[in-house]
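Reply to dn_fold:

You asked what the input looked like. This is it:
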Amino acid sequence: MAAVYSGISHKLKGKTTSWEDKLKLAHFAWISHQCFLPNKEQVLLDWARQSLVAFYKKKLELKEDIVERLWLYIDNILHSRKLQNLLKNGKTINLQLSLIKIINERITEFSLSGSQRNIRAVLSCCQGILATPALAVIYTAKQELMVALLSQLCWSACRHPEGAVIAQLLEVIHLALGHYLSIQQQQANPKRAFGDVTGHLLQPCLVLRHLLSGGTWTQAGQGQVRQVLSRDVRNQIEALLQGGVFRPDLLSSYKEELLGQEQGDTKMGTLKGLLTPMDTMTARLVDASYCEAHLCVSVVATSVALLYRLFLDSYLKEGNQFLCFQALPRLYGCLQLSELQEKRVKALSTSDWTTELLVLEQLLNSVADNNIYNVAADKIRHGEAQFHFYRRLAEMLVNHSQAVVPAWFRCLKILMSLNHLILEPDLDDVLSSAWIDAEVTEFRTKKAQEVLVHTLFQTYAKLRQVPRLLEEVLGVICRPAAEVLRPPVLASGPSAALCGCLLELPLSQILDMWCLVLEKFQSVVLPCLRSDVDMALKALSLSALLHCIMSNMPSLDGSTPLPVIRRTQRAMDGMLGELIRPLLALLLDAPSSESELWLQKLTDSTLLLAYTWAQVDATLSLNCVQYRSVAGALNGDAVETPDLPPLLPGVETRLWKKTEKLTARSSSLGRYCLEQLYLQKVKRTLMHTGPRSEAALQALRDDVAHILSSGRDSLSQRAAVSWDGQVGTVSAQTYPVAHWHAIVANLTLLVPYFCPDDVRYLASVLLRTLPASKALGNSAEDEPSITLEKVSSALLHSPLFPEMQSLYSAFLMCVIERCSSTLCSAAQSDLGPVSQQLPWLCEKDHAFVAHWETRFVKVSPEGIEPRGEIAQNLLSLVRSDFRILLEEEQLKGLLGLLEVMSTLPLDSLLSPYHVHCFLLLLSLAVSPPGHSCSRLALQCWMTCYRLLGCLQRGRSARSVFRVMYASDIFEVVLTSLLQASGKLHVEVEDPLWLQFLQVFGVFLEQLMQMLIHLKLSSVLNFGKMTAFLSSCTEAASGKHLENQSPLGSQLLLVSLTKLCQVLGPFVRERRQAQEAPGALPELLQQAMLQMGTVLRLCSGTECQGLRLPPAILSAVATLLEVDLSQRHRDGDEAEIAQVTDRALPSQAALYQGVYAGLLSELPALARSQESFQEALRFLTLFFSAPELHPEEGSVFASMLHSVRTVLSDPDVPAQATQDIEPHLGALLAQMLEAGTMEDFGLVVQSVLQGLDISHMWKADLQAVLSALRLLRLLLDCPLSGEKASLLWRACPQVITALTLQNREACQERPVVLTVVGLILDVLAALLRQGEEAISNPHHVSLAFSILLTVPLDRLRPPEYGSVFLKVHNVLFSILQCHPKVMMKAVPSFLNSFNRLVFSVMHEGRQKDKGSTDDLPVVLDCARLVERMYSHIAARAEEFTAFSPFLVAQYVTEAQKVTLYPTVKDLLQEGIYLILDLCIESDVQFLRASLQPGARDIFKELHSDYLKYHKAKQEGEKRYTV
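and this is what came back:
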């Protein structure tokens, strides 16, 4: 034997053997069991290692492929299962340092030069070593090797981010970081740990983290890295920095360096020489030599915030706040912002500004969130060191305004929150650069600006210094500036901030602000206003500010102090007399040579102030009795001509003419404010009580006409510019939206006084400005704004729109006219014949509606009007070559109009509009489509039939049948569809076609139901329908097989089905006693015979080899239902019954064929709920007819087998199974009701066999699921007598089987939640049967063992909510239905219930990171817990003794978590009910026995209980009789 292995060793080491043979021999020696070498694994590894070492030391020359194969050989050994098993069994394999060194050298070579030679194999070897703890010890034993490896790995990833091995490289880095962290945690020498990190790992790790955070490798493409791996590596880097740079034992060094404190700690000997850790770290951080300049700037910026956060995590505690602050300037000094502040850098790019300001924001947030800055402590103890630093930051931010960067606003906001004095010296510059003069366009920047302005106002509101802030604002507005370039002062963001502040201020301060603006206007702007464009623009800014203050201040009322009312009165009078009237005079006296811009801005400012004054004056007059308006009271008597309210008191009407001419020059703010003044005038006129004179009514008509005509020209050009809703931002671009918004917002006031032409104009504008698509609204990133489309859409969906009858009718006529014009444009020839046969399409005059109404009035009860005229016209058009052909663009336009019509409530139209709309929709429904427009045509037809159905259910439905018989409508629509079906390019099973059949069927059913409901000659109409269908059936059956239209056959089938479905019950109930007794039954019989013919026709053509479509299933089920009901009629119709008996054999073969097909197709049909429902309906009917059952085999057993197949089919989705279970339950109930005891025993046996535990052992989950679902259906069936007795006798066996199944399911990994959920459902259903069904308490107690094993942790929110609810249902069933068991099983019940309580508290805790998206599920579960507490409290006699233990367990668990307030409130409401059961001794016991932390929680809980719950109960008892 010695020769065997000695020969192998000799050949491997011999020089005569080629390297090719050596590698083959080494490979054979490793994998072969016939090769015996002592310590073979070590020998082979050493041979490969020595060969590589010799090659890299230049002692051996090898080809590149041989070197590659040697690396692969080592890699295969390291990753082999054989080696892993040897190491697991205790065998020792030694890796020499020489191998580790050449691995590190190769990675270093790759890092420096990018050489790809053998790098994949080297990294794989390194991964194999690090992934095996027994081998990785060679790295962990020598820390310097691990540090060198980790450093070069990180540099490799950073220097070659585009490399093909990046994913493999990061996997190795992940392993290496894990090993280094374990070494670092065991390192007792902090100096060495700090030195390793700062000297070798800090720079590469920070660069790598920056690249990972930027998503460099998580985007799709080559070298994609899993996001989980990226996150894990980032977390490991943070842990490495925390454990190396910010160790707890370095705190003294940081204190000595940052605070200058001499440390007297005896342990400082170990830190000798390590006195400046912060300087060392920052020096390494800002060293520009380790990467490219542009990357270095980004790395430093992102790292500064990280390092400061880690510093706070390590050292922030009570007493260390100033130390934590001192680290901030050091780290801030690494940023370019500090160099900019010290003028070492002249300027930064926008991207650099964004990056640096985001970092500064994070730093300041850390200061604010951790309460590092205490104003008093900083001033008293530290000489305002922090304050001065923040002041320098504020100066830098203000001097280098960056209003395009959202973070710039947020930094200023945080500084304001820290201390308003930080920004106060530069407050005017802050207001100017961040608000007044800031050009902000991007949405996120606007939100940041709004937050800053809101913080400014809120801060000064708390200080009661808002007037002082307003002084600064006014000073900025009035300072010399290029006003033309200024944006509006009060856009939506600043306006919202100011409005929110005004609601919290006392009226005295608001009046101070009001007076300040008036004083500034009168003293600074008004004297210099003439001919000065800059002053005119300032006047507009001040007017907008004054408007915001006055319009949003709290209104005066009867409780307002009289001095405040008098001051407000003086302010209003002064504003009107000393400001508005002089401005109007200046405006009216302006020469025509004045600048157009000056005139426009002065007009805008004047009218804005006038509108504001009128609006506030009206509000004060209504709400405050003591206020005396110059314009007079609003609650006077009827308006006479001399007393009509003016636009503004003291301004003559003739003076407004010139103002109107000025505003007519441009669509701007002035025109909008003039409209608002007219609106105020209308409201004042309407506010006068009593009957109005003709002059007053005419004045109202003139005013509303002026309001509408003011913006008519602007609405003719559809503007796409949105408006933010602020009056001050109305411009020429936004005026159309503002004007339309004002009209729509006041429509209820204006519509009654519009003339008919104006109403039609409004309707046309509404239709024109509706959005083209359904997708209307703002996404999360879009700015909320007002557009023409949004305003029109809101009006269309408003519940008030139908109440404005004139506008609603006009709008409907606009839609009808647009549809009619589209149809006329699709005419293929002269419109003359079309206008004669379809006159409602070509009439443009609205008087046409009145013409129809007159015709209806003239119709006598005998029906002199020939109702067949319209139907004959339509039929002649349909049967001949229809002159209208709808192409794609026309169909799309019609679809949009029909969608608009679908939003309108058409069921309450007046009869003329109702008929006009019905005839138009009918014309659309029978118009044929062009080529290749089949799908669009189906969508259009579907919408038409839905709307026709809505009209049929409407109030004026009878009016349609005055001009057309129901049978004529039936014939027209079916004829058109049968003709079009041959040209439609859709498949029989196309979902769109099936959906259309369903909609069309509903329309036909409603048509026939209305025929019966309105008692409209049922025999005549049903007779004509049956005769028409008979002719269609004969025509279809007479065609050759290749000429038959499958779509047409389905249309016939749907029509016959609906006829039988409506006529069958009608015949049975004999609603038409006055008709000939045999007429309707005979018609029904004819329809049944025709349906059988069409069914056989369909089953012989397109349905061969395919699943039965829903239309055929519905038809055959309906035919069988009517057939059976006809056969079981009373004896007075024996003759018809005989006819049916003769027909039955001919249909029996059809029924039996469908039955046989359904048994095999049932699982496939389960994916379509509609088809499956119809299939089950047929099977239920078939089972109830024993004469149809085949002679061989049991129908019950066959159906049961099919049901079980459906329940166990893995291809049926879980949601589909849940949807079809009610229908399966109805079938099973019918089967059990008609079945024998033997059949019932078969069901029970099937359930028990499926619950056999062997299925779970064999992983046959479908058998278990099928049995559980079948059992759940069985328990829902009504059972009595012997069948119920048999099921209850099997209950013990069932519960035992459920216990075993649940145990196995919960032991699986992952847990089989589908099985567990079904077990809990079945268990709850069993327990709800009560003690009569389950008499043995032992079997009920088994339920507790099931509940205790159900998993409630590590579940996704939907799964958690579902399982929680099911467990709760089981507990509730035991509590309510098994009182005898509860007498002895209270501890077991509470154990299971406490699992639910603890689970809710765990899931409802406040997490450090993450969203609150899961909170609704937890809240639902908390409500269930609260409800269960209430049920427990209601059973006081059983639970009183256990109430203190329930409270103790709740309090003990509550001590461990911090709950969301909403969850805590629900749980506390429940535990209060348990405290009601506790007596005083129980409370004392809890106070004495609880642990200190829990005792504090209990004290707080009991205090809240006495304060809120107990006091409320006592208050309720006081009023209880």
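The two ends are 107 Å apart (CA to CA).
Hope that clears it up.
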